[in-house]
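Please, structure for the following, as tokens.
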Amino acid sequence: MQAPSGEENESFIHDSRLGPFYFGGGAMSKMIDLTGRRFGRLVVIGEHGRDKWNQAIWACRCDCGNETNVVGGSLRNGNTKSCGCWRKDMPIVLKTTHNMTYSSVYASWWHMIDRCNNKENNRYKYYGGRGISVCDRWMDINTFYRDMGDKPDGLTIERIDNNGNYEPDNCKWATIAEQNRNNTRTILIKYENKVRCVSEWARIIGIHKNTLFYRLRHHTPEIAFNMPKSKRL
């Protein structure tokens, strides 16, 4: 295949030693027993604990014979349908593009898959190399298009949780600036009920971003943001 051209409530903690963190809130919901149910090539054989977000994980047996553990939500919404063997059929799926080969949405889709699966891609280490994958549902351009729609001009696909996978609940079309604020190196700071990255806060306060970053390494935002601009530490 030829590559296309181009391309509620959360709580916040700031630890002066480790930096800012988000953690999800909400009450635990009643678990639905999925044992014995089939999802694509997977049959659920039992519960396998919970993940760090308290979501139920299920042990599944794939039609190919392999066993794998999957978050229940990914099974129910169709994001995971196999142990990964389904990807062996990817070349066949990629050929079924329904005349979308030269569209911008196709380019975004193709590059998304390539950087997660192709070790020769120079960006693989930032995606597939650190465990980011494309859900089974989106290995087909047609279901990807049904979920995401046309690609708006000037926007690219973004994962809302930068450590999460490419799947419907975790993706949106976003500007490059939005994506830059959401990369693995961006530090978000909450102050006066507003959340911005360090460089944006520095611009608002009127100091160099490195100065603000240094202050935040030693003080809470309430102190760092109200220090004299010329104060030496």
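The radius of gyration is 21 Å. The CA atoms of residues 132 and 163 lie 7 Å apart.
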